Amino acid sequence: MPRESYNVRVLRQKALSSLRTGVGAFNALDDEGRITRVLLSLQHAFEMLLKAALEAKRVPVFDKRSGKSISLELAIRQCQQTDGIKISDDEAGTIRALDSLRDAEQHWYVVVDEGLLYLYVRSAVTLFDDLLCRVFGERLGDHLPARVLPISAEPPQGLDLLVDREHERIARLLKPGRRATAEANARIRALLATEALADLDAAEVSETDVRRVARGIREGKSRSQVFPKLTGYAANIVGSGLTVEVRLVKSGGLPVTYTSDPAVDPAAIRTVDLEKKFYMGPYDLADRAGVSRSGATALRRHLGLDSNDDHFSHRFVFGRTKHLRYSDNALKAMRDALGTVDMERVWAAHRTLASNSKSTLPPCDQPGCVLGSTAKPAQA
Predict the structure, then answer these.
(1) Residues β-bridged to residue 69
(2) CB 360 within 8 A of CB 346
(3) pLDDT, tens digit, for every residue of 96-109?
(4) 225: which residues sit within 8 A by CB, 6+ positions away?
(5) Which of 19, 293, 316, 373 is the 20 to 30 Å CA partner of 326?
(6) Is 366 left (phi over 0), alpha (psi -120 to 50) or beta?
């Protein structure tokens, strides 16, 4: 293997140190500040590990505009797109759920059921080991003794059972006369953060969502009604004792329906941070898709990505200024199309050059750019 850079070695060691700290905090006998130390350490462990992996693959981890290191969310997206790392949607969801829990705990507070906390920590250790082996060819056991792995007096249980148990506990706390709304809301925050497993839009917990869920539970709504995105996820548990492996995976379709019907129960509808979902400008979208910027304009028009439908794109209005931004859905659509459409035909049909200009597709100005495949012409 090629010699590792100093940055890779330092980042990987920081990741291992934070993982050791997080697991040690979980196993600690002192409950004072325990959840805070666990979540902060595990989130930092994954941020350092992902950036070490990107550095090892020579993928930039500094934002060109700000000159600062990219966020964990951007690191996740880069790792999903980088050969040799290619984290799956389930793996990305696990990291996002930990990040969402850390965010809620660091900036306010959450109450996490002990069974759920063990599931998060154990799945974090399993995923950390998977990524360490995938990218660096090492196992976590090469760096940590078995005694530091998370230990629980309660055997691991399925995610669906734990969520059902928490829903029932929250319902009891919200009963009239209990005066336990603050604790109930703290537990709701933990479950809302867990929804980041299924959807990037759920990665941030707002108090508006907390109040809406609490109102739905008070009205007797079921768990599937107030937390619909958790219905399709489960914990895949293999082994036992110190050798147990836990992976949070999608087990089925999510029973989520989007509707404009005012009669539909809104208990489970969450607010969405549009700026986080639609984070790419047209140039950034073209560069990530690997097509020239002029060609990307033609391809966007061919695919209808500029429709401002809040799926592929969204138009932000700031006074008199308007900015069209794109989501990961648009990026995926463009990458898929590059393997099926004839870019020469797309360019001829949607080009923006004057009529007396050359009609050939302009050269790509990005390294590794793909101009398109002629394997299948575009359908009329």
Answers:
(1) 62
(2) no
(3) 999 999 999 999 99
(4) 216, 265, 267, 268
(5) 373
(6) beta
In 3D space, the residue among 219, 230, 233 whose CA is nearest the CA of residue 267 turns out to be: 219
H/E stretch holding 347 reads helix 343-350
DSSP codes, 231-278: TTEEEEEES-GGG-EEEEEE-S---------TTS--TT-----HHHHS
- Strands 313-318 and 245-250, by their bridges, are unpaired
What is the β-pairing status of strands 245-250 and 321-326? Answer: unpaired
Query: pLDDT tens digit string along 272-309?
Result: 566 777 888 888 888 888 888 888 888 888 888 888 67
Q: What does the block give as tokens for 122?
A: 């154990």
Contact 49, 131 (CB under 8 A): yes
Q: From CA 99, how far away is CA 121, in angstroms rounded?
A: 12
How much is the CA Rg of the chain, to the nearest whole Å?
A: 23
The whole-angstrom distance between residue 180's C-alpha and the CA centroid of its chain comes to 32
Please determine, for residue 313, whether its predicted confidence score (pLDDT) is greater than 60. Answer: yes
What would you measure as the largest C-alpha separation in the chain, in angstroms?
A: 78
Task: Please list, in sequence order, all residues whose beta carbon lies within 8 angstroms of the beta carbon of residue 56, skipping any fewer than 6 positions away.
Answer: 4, 5, 8, 135, 136
Q: What pTM does this model have?
A: 0.69
Average pLDDT over residues 256-261: 41
Structure-token pair, residue 208: 């508006």
Give the count of alpha carbons within 13 A of 202, CB side only. 25
Residues in the chain, total = 380
Report the range of poorest mean pLDDT among 62-66, 107-111, 242-246.
242-246
Q: Are 129 and 233 in contact (CB under 8 A)?
A: no
Residue 313 backbone phi and psi in degrees, to 5: -150, 160
Contacts of residue 122, defined as CB under 8 A and 6 or more positions apart, other chains included, come to 150, 156, 244, 245, 246
C-alpha angle 368-371-372 in degrees, rounded to nearest 5: 120
Tokens of 301: 């028009």
**Spatial contact of 235 and 159, defined as CB atoms under 8 Å apart:** yes
Alpha-carbon 111 to chain mean position: 22
In the block, residue with structure tokens 């439908």: 309
282 near 294, Cβ under 8 Å? no
